[in-house]
Amino acid sequence: MLFLREGPRWDICRDNVNAARTTIVKSYGVPESHPEVVCEVREIQEKLDAESTAGGGHPWYEIFTGPKTPYRTIFGVMIQALQQLAGANFFFYYGAKVFKATGIENSSTTAMILGGVDLLTTLPGLYIVDRHGRGPALIAGGLSMFMCFMVSDYTAPEPLL
């Protein structure tokens, strides 16, 4: 990443149209006078002008100050935090040891089992989100996880609660 050029949009934002044109020329492999290069530069400039007239300068702290925006920001952060706390990554990191305790010695078998379970649960999840929306899917997922945690807690030899 350190050796890559800046994107043409970034260069044009910084009033460096020549650098943007050079990047586009190298990407397309055509001469600088090629109509595609001219069209691309013009299109980027038009989009940047349209964004600046529409009020495109939003500061970063606006994610906490706009209407309903703090709620959405906190909700997104909480979803990611709870996803991490659910423990799925535990099996991806320590799955071989867990499965070894159950009698499966081969780590490639463990990886195949984890990948298969991941695939078999991701595809229906995508379908459900597409069909019913994110809200009902999140609520149903949270409730089912809560129920599974309660069942595992109360059926453990030494209950944790």
Structure description:
By secondary structure, this protein is mostly helical. It folds into 2 domains: 8-53; 66-154, no CATH class. It has 7 helices and no strands. Helix 2 crosses helix 3 and helix 5 packs antiparallel against helix 6. The longest helix is centred in the C-terminal third of the chain and has 26 residues, at 107-132. It is elongated, with a radius of gyration of 25 Å. The protein starts with 7 loop residues before the first helix and ends in a 7-residue tail after the last helix. GO terms for molecular function: carbohydrate:proton symporter activity. InterPro entries: MFS_sugar_transport-like (IPR005828), MFS_Sugar_Transporters (IPR050360), MFS_trans_sf (IPR036259). Keywords: Membrane, Transmembrane, Transmembrane helix.
List keywords for this structure.
MFS_trans_sf; 7 helices; carbohydrate:proton symporter activity; mainly alpha; single chain; MFS_Sugar_Transporters; transmembrane helix
